[in-house]
Amino acid sequence: MHTDPIQRLILELGRLPGIGERTAARLAFYIIKASSRAVAEGGQPLSRDLAHALIEVSDKVGLCKECQNLCAHERCAVCTDPARDRTVLCVVEGVADVRAIESTGSYRGIYFVLHGALAPLDGIGPEELKLGLLVERVQQNACREVIMATNADVEGDATALYLAQLLRSTGVGVSRIASGIPLGGELEYIDHATLSRALSERRSVY
Ligand SMILES: [Zn+2]
């Protein structure tokens, strides 16, 4: 449709979240300029590096069979790490949350990524969040605790409550992170110390 390659690059970059047309144009011009400079200096152009990285994630990255985190293999690095405590499972809304909790270095259990939160009005129900798979994981690992680390907003709270009820029959203990997370707070934007404390000071749901 767009025969002009510069226009096409601007258009594609503009599809990214938080990137308006002006920013897209600025990024496109930067990529073009940096790439031609690298070529002139005998180096590898940024444009090609970016293109290869994008093709590689599109070809190789999928969801971990166990926790639904993004990974380039069947199972992610956390799920295949024998040092992790498989009896403690932390439920998060997104992959960025796993990254945030991992960066605190204080959590040694495993995860389950929902890829969203319950939002019936938007058509996101238990099926979409693969909650059946979560129950399966809890049972297979004979988990003793499931930590609800969904966001501290309405959807996150509702999801945690729904899950707690769903897991009741499995006999697992359920806790919810609370302390230090501001109301409406999204995990991925919270600093390490606060997140670390929120995890260690979690309270039991039942
Ligand atoms: Zn995994």
Overall description:
This protein has 7 helices and 7 strands, in the order H-H-H-E-E-E-H-E-H-E-H-E-H-E. The protein is an alpha/beta fold and 206 residues long. The strands form 2 sheets. The chain has a 5-stranded mixed sheet with strand order 4-3-5-6-7. Helix 6 links the parallel strand 5 (145-148) and strand 6 (173-176). The protein is elongated. The protein binds zinc ion. Zinc ion binds at residues 64, 66-67, 69, 75-76, 78-79.
Enumerate the spans where pLDDT stays under 50 for 5 or more consecutive residues.
Answer: none
CA radius of gyration is 21 Å
Number of helical runs?
A: 7
**Topology as a string of helices (H) and strands (E):** HHHEEEHEHEHEHE
Within the largest sheet, what's the order of strands? 4-3-5-6-7
Average pLDDT, rounded to a whole number, is: 90
Report helical residue fraction. 40-55%
List how many beta strands DSSP finds: 7
Q: Ligands bound here?
A: zinc ion
Assign the structural class, choosing from mainly alpha, mainly beta, alpha/beta, alpha+beta, or little secondary structure: alpha/beta
